[in-house]
Amino acid sequence: MTKMNMLQAINSALITAMTDDEKVMVFGEDVGHFGGVFRATSNLQQKFGKARCFNTPLTEQGIIGFANGLASHGSVPVAEIQFGDYIFPAFDQIVNETAKFRYRSGGQFTCGTLTIRTPYGGGIAGGLYHSQSPEAFFAHIPGMKVVIPRNPYQAKGLLLASIRDDNPVLFMEPKRLYRASVGEVPEEDYELPLGKAEVVKEGDHITLLAWGAQIEVIEKAAAMAEKDGISCEIIDLRSILPWDAETVCASVKKTGRLLVNHEAPQTGGFASEISATVQERCFLYLESPITRVCGLDTPYPLAHEKEYMPDHLKTYEAIKRCVNF
Amino acid sequence: MVNNDGVKVRLRGFMVKDRNHLCDVGISHRVNIIDKGTVDIPMLQILRPDGSVHDNADMPDISKATAQKIFQTMHYIRVLDERMVGAQRQGRISFYLACSGEEASTVGSAAALSEHDMIMSQYREQGTLAYRGYRTEQFMNQMFSNKLDPNKGRQMPIHYGDKALNFMTISSPLGTQIPQAAGYAYGQKMAGNDALTICYFGEGAASEGDFHAGLNMASVLSCPVIFFCRNNGYAISTPASEQFSGDGIASRGLGYGIKTIRVDGNDVLAVYLATQKAREIALAEHCPVLIEAMTYRLAAHSTSDDPTGYRSKEEEQKWREKDPVQRFENWMKSKNWLDEAQHKDFIEKTRQEVLAAMKKAEQVDICDIDDLVNDVYDTPPWHLQVQLSQLKQHISQYPDAYPKTSGRIRHD
């Protein structure tokens, strides 16, 4: 075990994957010699050569189009989109190509080896175009997997599993944790399961569900609620697609209450899907309406970032409303 | 061209020669506006429209067997197109897309490739696929979306795909295959394969962002790929004159630093020679090559289109006179390589074969209902299993409403 921040853990995962399999190739804007704007790909070009870690021209649709072709050849591309906010030029390649390659060819060709890494989320004074959390768009694409880690340990294990999974994975990295989140990470190779949520803390009165950087937020809110005698169960969803309804519903059946927190705007956010499924499966167990604490339905603001964010205080108030319903 | 090692900037910002974006730049003290069309990109033509050979033309080294295979494939496709347009008119298939007028481009280029080369096509390249060895029954199984179609009946007619023949499954969105071809070719290069990727598209698709992204990626990342543009004059109803105002598609290759050749797309020998040369260069130099084949879509865009609304009979007639199949036939005759009786027999046999295969394919069942959720992922995740199981129960409840699958439901 070594103390690492999330960037170091991601870098360690990439080194592990590239050492393990020479078909793994890492590319994107500025990822080469420079090591990426956040330094997640530091030293990869020096270690593995320019043919396996390289800069691309500044074209997201080109990066993902190229990655799709490379994956369909049998290589293992790990493509970086520098910010989640800039993934949209590649949306067509992801929606119509990456995700449908296997299905449309009857399994003859696939992009299963592809992993797309992208930083997402706010809290870094990034304004409209360096802060978005677009996971819900990608949760609506059959064929994709969407994975989000909450800390360095999770980041390394989930990224290695994503790279080796035989399905295309969008791996979204909470960039405000890149340096802020530090923890013990094994230096050796390990994987964490995709499609499995994790109960981070057990509790009795309410289930709090989030992913990525918002886990810290609900943990803080839970600590406040505990002082009021409210026992919170905390779940990290980890995979947005396919998502682990079983673990979530088992928890809701136990606590009778559910709060979902995400940074993305509320309307059409992934909390909507979770709420619909949970009320279908747990209707008679629910003691209060399912509560959402989300971003506002506005573009991501700059000066009002603090006000916009679904922070621990908003979450704490929602917990109380839910329990006192 | 690209040198990641180094931007060496000397003191006070004085740039040295190896700064890429400034190298080889001359200086002018006058306002020089470069007019469009100042670079002359000629079109390689070996055969005159009447099939005779131009004096002093470069000739490809082509065997009699290859020429005959090209000739037969062009005719095979004419028969297939004619029959399938008819089948669509009769309501037997939902959609078809003929390639009349473009046989030389698609078949001539296919003939210059190795069977190990990956073909990423747009959708009007049935000639390329037939040359590779796709059989009539395979064409039919795909078009009738039956369970023998390797794509499992999931895509509209003409979206062929065959891994064994290195023919990538076709996708409807235009131009998406262009950056993919760059990536596939990069994979071939990295794996040390003695093979490249050829990527077909039309002049309309070359307006998509993916075209520009793909050519630039291929050029910068040194990918052995042939970009083959079929400039057939129309994107559905939009003429090339309303698609771009530059000098065709070839001029764009130069902008991306890609070796480029323009060829008469109705001259099969010129297409064959240009593609052979492009292949040699791409493999030897690890680089992309752009071919612009100047041709004409004599057919409608698809069976859903009626060209009389946007182009004249006179224009079509002008291009019929440049018909690639007739032109090649004349050349074959001049070489004494055409046995007319045998050829007549081939056409008749092909017609019967297409009809028989069609009758057979339309009788074959569609895939089991389980294939609705297979191949979305490597294995169906829990939510697809739940949805499939609910659907099966529903079908069992109303079997008459779902006759194609209700008789074959397995409740696991």
From TrEMBL, chain A:
Task: Tell me the GO BP annotations in alphabetical order.
Answer: branched-chain amino acid catabolic process; response to nutrient
The UniProt entry, under SUPFAM superfamilies, shows: Thiamin diphosphate-binding fold (THDP-binding) (SSF52518), TK C-terminal domain-like (SSF52922)
Q: What is its EC number?
A: 1.2.4.4
In its UniProt record, a GO molecular function of this protein is: branched-chain 2-oxo acid dehydrogenase activity
Q: What are the UniProt keywords, alphabetically? A: Oxidoreductase, Thiamine pyrophosphate
Please give the cofactor(s) recorded in the UniProt entry for this protein: thiamine diphosphate
- UniProt xrefs under InterPro entries: THDP-binding, Transketo_C/PFOR_II, Transketolase-like_Pyr-bd, Transketolase_C
Transketolase-like pyrimidine-binding domain: residues covered: 4-180
What Pfam families does UniProt report for this protein, alphabetically?
Answer: Transket_pyr, Transketolase_C
The record, for CDD domains, names: TPP_PYR_E1-PDHc-beta_like (cd07036)
- Indicate yes or no for the key word Oxidoreductase: yes
Q: What does this protein do?
A: The branched-chain alpha-keto dehydrogenase complex catalyzes the overall conversion of alpha-keto acids to acyl-CoA and CO(2). It contains multiple copies of three enzymatic components: branched-chain alpha-keto acid decarboxylase (E1), lipoamide acyltransferase (E2) and lipoamide dehydrogenase (E3).
In its UniProt entry, what is this protein called? 2-oxoisovalerate dehydrogenase subunit beta
Q: Gene symbol? A: bkdA2
